[in-house]
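Q: How do we represent a protein-ligand complex in a form that can be generated token by token?
A: Start from the inputs.
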Amino acid sequence: MSKIVMKTPLVEMDGDEMTRILWQMIKDELLTPFIDLKTEYYDLGLEHRNATNDQVTVDSAEATKKYGVAVKCATITPNAARMEEYDLKEMWKSPNGTIRAILDGTVFRAPIIVKGIEPCVRNWKKPITIARHAYGDVYKNSEMVIPGPGKVELVYTAEDGTQTSELVHQFTGAGVVQGQHNINASIESFARSCFNYALDTKQDLWFATKDTISKKYDHTFKDIFQEIFDAEYQQKFADAGITYFYTLIDDAVARVMKSEGGYIWACKNYDGDVMSDMVSSAFGSLAMMTSVLVSPQGVYEYEAAHGTVQRHYYKHLKGEETSTNSVATIFAWTGALRKRGELDGTPELCTFADKLEKACIQTIESGQMTKDLALITTIDEPVVLNSQDFIKAIRKTLEGML
Ligand code: NAP
Ligand code: MG
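Then emit the structure tokens for the protein with magnesium ion bound:
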């Protein structure tokens, strides 16, 4: 069998720990035997980030802008313990944060649905994709502890020096206060990323805020989405047979619980943080959750939603057997390969990506899975495989399909 040829390279961002081990196994077993894999390789493993003063992260994001599609392995975000463990020059920032800042994107997270791993919410039949706005609000706030009676105001000083103020509260005793902001440009790119991704995946888009209470702040989000939708997307949505739906956040939550899924739920930063954890745990496992960063210019970076699975890596280093689920990382590759195929007009690549995804699902549905899934599956007597054998089982299923 001849290998599938790629026209344009994928930007490949390698990572850390157990996911770095899986990364190589996936390439060796599931990709290079079938594809003449073209990638521009960036090593985002912590050692190399440290050696390059994190320049490699910036370079990989710039390359993503150039080529349009990247696939990323999970990476360590350093903390004090990692400073010591890796003898770091600095506590380098989260690579995801750096990449997101350069690409100015929105992250979309969707569960991978398989029979036998049933969502806790009985009526959820299709994936619910969460789109989280990744800038501002409480994540870029300023706060103060108010020690006692006094007045707190919001003051805006324009460039010409004129001031406008708004009373926050006349304190009669101790309390707390918090200032939040967002910027229209960021909300606009969030909106465009959501509309584009909805068109891309042919799913309805829901968006919700608390605009009845927050008549200026949240209302601005609502208005910006509506203006952009009316001006740029109304017709495209109609042609694609999908809808844009705005409602209040509490109404959205109630509807989500009663829905059967199959749409994108756009959330403000905090809502997205909280709701993505709720949705992912209700769907079963973080190891079955994909994640893609989409920029308003239509640049894509695919990854798994989970981290580097440190605990398993330490077992691996001790020579013990691990049973780490590689599905989300495989789906990062298939997402990127399919997008590359779409952009390059190489349908063979898209078909291969579809088949590899099906092979993962069929393998699990046949009862062969990693330990994390075996613990929650409704399938009788599942066969628990180790990290390597699970990937080999997927390869066997895949070969049967090709
Ligand atoms: P984690 O890597 O997501 O793992 C947390 C736990 O979840 C694991 O110990 C394991 O549970 C389970 N798990 C996650 N993925 C799994 C998989 N594929 N297969 C089986 N079980 C899986 O989170 P963490 O341990 O908090 O973080 C480790 C490192 O990852 C940190 O340095 C963090 O900075 C980084 N991180 C990176 C990203 C990213 O690059 N996108 C995201 C999050 C975290 P059991 O141990 O019970 O088996
Ligand atoms: Mg969270």
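Residues 1-111+289-402 form a domain with the Isopropylmalate Dehydrogenase fold (CATH 3.40.718.10). The mean pLDDT is 95.
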